[in-house]
Amino acid sequence: MSHITVDDLADAALLYCEKPEWQDVTPVPQYDGILFNLSVDVLIVVLADKDATDYFRAVVKSDEISERVLQLTEDIIRLNPAHYSAWQFRYRTLIALKSNLDAELALMDVLAIQFLKTYQVWHHRRLILTALHGASPSESLDAAAKELHFITRALDTDTKNYHTWSYRQWLLAFFDDEALWEGELPYVEKLLDVDVRNNSAWHHRYYVVWGRVRANGEVDQEEVLKGEIAYTKDQIAGAPNNPSAWNYLRGVLEHTKQPFSSVQTFVELYAAPARKTAEDVVVDLDNPGPGPDAHLPCVAALEFLADIYEAAGGEQKKAVEIWKSLANEHDNMRKKFWEFRIKDAST
Amino acid sequence: MATSDERDWTPTPTDGVSTPTSTLQAHTEEILKARYLSTHLNAAANANQEAAKKPFEPTLNKNSHVQYLLRNLRQGFPARYISQEASQPWLIFWTLQGFQLFGFGMDGNTKKQTVDTILAMQHPNGGFGGGPGQAPHLLPTYAAVCALAIVGQPGAGGGWDQIDRDKLYDFFMSLKQPDGSFLVAHHAEVDVRGIYCLLAVATLLNIITPELVAGTPEFIASCQTYEGGFGNASFPGWALRGSSIDPSIARPPLGEAHGGYTFCATASWVLLQPYLRTSYSQEGAVQPSVNLKALLRWTVQMQGSSIELGGFKGRTNKLVDGCYSWWVGGCAGLVEGLLGGGHSAKAEDDAVDAKADQDNSLFNREALQEYVLYAAQHPAGGLADKPPKPADSYHTLYCLAGLSASQHRVMPSKERRATLESVYHTEPESQNDGLRKEVFLSALSWVEEVGTAKYVGGAESRLNATHPLFNLTVTHTENMMGHFYKQRVPVWNPQKKSS
Ligand SMILES: [Zn+2]
């Protein structure tokens, strides 16, 4: 949180109360002498922040719409990127002044990277992209493509940034253009090649493959399903104790209403206490087995197998055996939960 | 004294494949293990002979945390909070509610000052801003109203009757979107945190109407991801037909399942149950649904392993963090409530017999307490994400609230509901009383289950119980709702029954 340094303030050499162009405005101080006053040891920062925000309150009060409001709100945002009122007022001013929105995006590029974790920087971009789209849907596609690149750059520095991912997903759906979507799956695969445990990338994969709403018949669902199952099995084979990949497998099967038992052969390889010895292995390309360093049995596979047994009917006993082993041995932390599964299955 | 080798120190398996996620994970596990071991070493060094015979349990350093909260209150917040100028009601709420969990009252003068401070942030057009003169916003509105629940009272200058509820309602309506969601502020984003804040406030202040929440359950349901938890919003565009939603077309969730959003979505879902019960039955309308089993599964999967000291993560394959003790640990209790796990008949009928294991919780309560006590307590006071992070007000409250939620089971009680219903009276002029009554009874039926409290570290670690829907004590919740619904709230005294 402490991203403000004295260096940042060197640029803003003059306080607003010292700037000649602001002499016509009477600053509106926050309030006096109440709880939670700031301590004096942070004087410089407080002074600059307080100075700018006092003037900000004044322009809000007078409802001023002018170029200098853009400068003021930019200063406040640089000091405090979570100041949503400043963002809100800035956006309103940009629209009222019919400002160049491409220039606004460029100006905000630096801020977005600097304040990656702040909601407001991403939401502001979303408002601007929406406004560009409103002005000219076809021309705004260029801006959207550029934006997608920008988001990729931001994700390079933080591959799990929540707001950035959420914004990327919104952008794709909002512009819903094939040229934007088509690079997404290769992009996800690149990220998963680097880190197969990146859950944000798995979620994005789900969004791109299953979340996107398309016209009927546009894609061969069966083909897509086959491809996704094969891909996920390969990723599990590479690193079996990866909940992200198992959750994806479950999600895909549930979404397409495929029974879990359709992958039983595969799951059993990971629910076994040890890897089969080389002479026992029958090469099965559809069901890649765990590697020599795999930690077995895999808790996620045990859970999966128990779910298969529970759904099968008549195999309740086998499911209960697995839940017991999870509760008492393999996943003791969730003992209560596995006991709940046993109780729940019997009622 | 328990020795460290009694604990399971199995690291998270990497299957021989190292990636940035597993590297960070392994590093964190080392830090947590080291913290555990050093805590035991210090305890051994300081223990007298008597204490050394007993197994060691970590305790809550109440005194140093209270000092931390007092420092914030007296000297103002440290420099790093300046960037939170826009969230002053939050700083106030986090501090005040922290004191409540420790059972500390405020003197009249402090209360009065705090009420004035908060009222200065009420916007003339309704709602509260992050500071005086700031635009109204759903998040600080929740924090402000909850802070007023703690320090305010009815009457002139008391804070409660100075909340402009008519304007607040208009403000809420002005944020409403065609997909049933709400912007958090004008020109701002939609997300389930804002919706939780709105519903919590509307419930406390008695301003829920069918018009306000129409479409909101469907929106919440659309934010559930394939993992079972909730993302921050959903994309309405494909399903939008003018200003209405085509229910046959999907609204995919934006953002992966996440602890903070999952708490907010789940609490919203609970707060919307009265509306779901009263408004869907007659029309034969299709009720939206949330996959509760998937939600439960995701919630318990977030609890870290023994080497992670039983803390909660906020997302799959991310690190444990003290604040998720509340967001996810607290959420587990809400899910249990939704699954029908109220006060067990046994507990209500036989309150004295606490020897038998009556713990129906579906997550590991002791383990979560251990995480907060070992990993989240900062040696200099206040609580934190994990070592070596500094303490801050946000983590201090949510670590404490999570600790409280793992000590006490606050669950819906049929008995409590019946008692409240027996004295409920309908205001002659009131509209929507079916819904209003249901909101009132449902929210206040959550009370602590007798005989199920557990304290790692014994009484020294004990905190007050907190209401899982609001994160206020049950007493503050009852007082405020009693006032705004004009109802008498009888004292809850379940012990009587067992004698
Ligand atoms: Zn945290």
From TrEMBL, chain A:
<dbReference type="InterPro" id="IPR002088">
    <property type="entry name" value="Prenyl_trans_a"/>
</dbReference>
<keyword id="KW-0460">Magnesium</keyword>
<dbReference type="GO" id="GO:0004660">
    <property type="term" value="F:protein farnesyltransferase activity"/>
</dbReference>
<dbReference type="GO" id="GO:0005953">
    <property type="term" value="C:CAAX-protein geranylgeranyltransferase complex"/>
</dbReference>
<comment type="similarity">
    <text>Belongs to the protein prenyltransferase subunit alpha family.</text>
</comment>
<dbReference type="Pfam" id="PF01239">
    <property type="entry name" value="PPTA"/>
</dbReference>
<dbReference type="GO" id="GO:0005965">
    <property type="term" value="C:protein farnesyltransferase complex"/>
</dbReference>
<dbReference type="GO" id="GO:0004662">
    <property type="term" value="F:CAAX-protein geranylgeranyltransferase activity"/>
</dbReference>
<keyword id="KW-0677">Repeat</keyword>
<keyword id="KW-0808">Transferase</keyword>
<protein>
    <recommendedName>
        <fullName>Protein farnesyltransferase/geranylgeranyltransferase type-1 subunit alpha</fullName>
        <ecNumber>2.5.1.58</ecNumber>
        <ecNumber>2.5.1.59</ecNumber>
    </recommendedName>
</protein>
<keyword id="KW-0637">Prenyltransferase</keyword>
UniProtKB/TrEMBL annotation, chain B:
<comment type="function">
    <text>Catalyzes the transfer of a farnesyl moiety from farnesyl diphosphate to a cysteine at the fourth position from the C-terminus of several proteins. The beta subunit is responsible for peptide-binding.</text>
</comment>
<dbReference type="InterPro" id="IPR026872">
    <property type="entry name" value="FTB"/>
</dbReference>
<comment type="similarity">
    <text>Belongs to the protein prenyltransferase subunit beta family.</text>
</comment>
<feature type="domain" description="Prenyltransferase alpha-alpha toroid">
    <location>
        <begin position="60"/>
        <end position="471"/>
    </location>
</feature>
<dbReference type="InterPro" id="IPR001330">
    <property type="entry name" value="Prenyltrans"/>
</dbReference>
<protein>
    <recommendedName>
        <fullName>Protein farnesyltransferase subunit beta</fullName>
        <ecNumber>2.5.1.58</ecNumber>
    </recommendedName>
</protein>
<keyword id="KW-0677">Repeat</keyword>
<feature type="region of interest" description="Disordered">
    <location>
        <begin position="1"/>
        <end position="24"/>
    </location>
</feature>
<keyword id="KW-0808">Transferase</keyword>
<dbReference type="InterPro" id="IPR008930">
    <property type="entry name" value="Terpenoid_cyclase/PrenylTrfase"/>
</dbReference>
<dbReference type="InterPro" id="IPR045089">
    <property type="entry name" value="PGGT1B-like"/>
</dbReference>
<dbReference type="GO" id="GO:0005965">
    <property type="term" value="C:protein farnesyltransferase complex"/>
</dbReference>
<keyword id="KW-0479">Metal-binding</keyword>
<keyword id="KW-0637">Prenyltransferase</keyword>
<dbReference type="GO" id="GO:0008270">
    <property type="term" value="F:zinc ion binding"/>
</dbReference>
<dbReference type="GO" id="GO:0004660">
    <property type="term" value="F:protein farnesyltransferase activity"/>
</dbReference>
<keyword id="KW-0862">Zinc</keyword>
<feature type="compositionally biased region" description="Polar residues">
    <location>
        <begin position="11"/>
        <end position="24"/>
    </location>
</feature>
<dbReference type="Pfam" id="PF00432">
    <property type="entry name" value="Prenyltrans"/>
</dbReference>
<dbReference type="GO" id="GO:0097354">
    <property type="term" value="P:prenylation"/>
</dbReference>
<comment type="subunit">
    <text>Heterodimer of an alpha and a beta subunit.</text>
</comment>
